[in-house]
Amino acid sequence: MTRGAIAAALLPGFLLGVRGWPLAEVRCAVAAPPESSKVEWLTTIDEGLAQAEESGKDLLINFTSSSGSHYGTLLERAVFAQPEFAAVAEHFVLVELDFPKAAAWPAAAAGTSADRASPSDVRGDTRDIGTYRQWQSQYLVCGFPTVVVADSQGKPIAYTGYEKGIAVAGFLKSLETYRSARLARDQALQQADRLAGSERAACLDSALECVARNLGTLEERQGDALLSCYADIVTQICRLDADDALGLRSKYDRRQKALQLYVQSEGVFSKLRDFQTEHEILDYIEHVLPTITDADMIWRLEFARQVHLEWDNQHAAAIDNARRLLKRSNLTRDQQESLRDRMACNLQNLGRYTEAVAELDALIAANKDRPSRQFTYLSSRAWCLDASANTGKSRTAAIVAFQQLRARCLSGTEEWETATWGLSVQLQKSHRFREALVLRKELVDVSRTPEALLHLTETQIALGRTEDASRSLAEAERLIPMNKPARKKDTDHTERMTAKVRELRRQLGQ
Predict the structure, then answer these.
(1) Distant-in-sequence, close-in-space partners of 414: CB < 8 Å, separation ≥ 6
(2) What's the rounded mean pLDDT across residues 213-235?
(3) Which of 3.40.50.80, 3.40.30.10, 3.40.47.10, 2.60.40.10 is the CATH number of 31-195?
(4) Is the distance from CB of 185 to CB of 203 less than 8 angstroms?
(5) Strand pairing of 146-150 and 92-98?
(6) Each residue of 284-337: pLDDT tens digit?
(7) The whole model's pTM is what?
(8) Counting runs of H as helices and runs of E as strands, what totals does the chain give?
(9) Partners of 158 in the beta sheet?
């Protein structure tokens, strides 16, 4: 089972972005990245290759979806927006392919953290999505964010991305490791140029081994990056060791056979990407399921049906489907919890908040032995209660839920920021402005971003502290970049903040 498929089948929907809890709202308020004005990102790989070939620099290609990948936003904030990254960025040609949500959805169907959106999301979009997808396919990128480090000719050296707790120092250390691997590969390739026959074959194989460990597994890439991107060298090795005297011919034959077997087993799921509508996908799953005997594949297809019912807004049918699957006796604990989590999501989407909270309460109680998983369900519960309160019901339960969530977090962490901001929102909406002010000051102290300052300004205005509000608003404005950013996501982000500034200035009578 691939890592992506495991994510789709086992992780709670809150993490996948398909749940319905307001991740986009959280992302804008808490995890919006600071402007990286010192770093220039190109938006096409063709441009990047041209610059890399001219300069001899390595490429760093960020496949992301700023509107569809929460983890892409976290990676931006933790690494790419940091001055330490800007200091070493000049040694790379930086390229970012920022997929709209609708263009990212096939990756989500395969089990990544990308969100699903309707095709209307890309209407009028100036990005060449067809070309983006070609590069995504060529580099075997099956989830966002994925960072590909490649040489000046575009051959991948390593793959990396977001991991929980990622920091810029660790990321830069990894980049240095990848660079060392590339230098060792190049040295071995240069040595091979001076050799012939079996000696050349052995040296070429040694060169590939320098980078092979950083290219990921079949499951991680849903393909073989070495065979795909280094096919010319592999062909040479097999030709030079045609009699398999060095065992290299059989080595790469085994690798090729493993890839063929993997492609055959995954063919059922790759077919999902050929369809344009949820109805077509659901019909295909219904048709193919009776032909499958492997228990793991059956589960993955059943869970794919669950997700596509939700994406088709068939929430009642999705609940019935989850209940049907829960009657099976061979489900693992994680599979059972995943289905109950989906039930809670669909109950919320139908406005059945009390039932949704009851499902989440049961999941919370069942995960006392797994604090991380329990925290996820506590977070989902808090946002469910927020959604319930937004319909006119009491906000008291939501306040308590966010207080409990915040008490579980270490100060200054991403989780703490999200919980603190969520609690401040509940207090603000309850007109408990003084309590909200304390929390928003804490957020500003931890992360002095334009977003945090704008939220602080909002609360200061509500309390009538116009002088404080004017100072906070002025500071926020100074932190908003004046020059038009190159990347669309930065432009959109700047426009949102600028609009918020105008609104707050109007409230201040300025």
Answers:
(1) 30, 31, 74
(2) 94
(3) 3.40.30.10
(4) no
(5) unpaired
(6) 999 999 988 888 889 999 999 999 999 899 999 999 999 999 999 899 999 999
(7) 0.67
(8) 26, 4
(9) 149
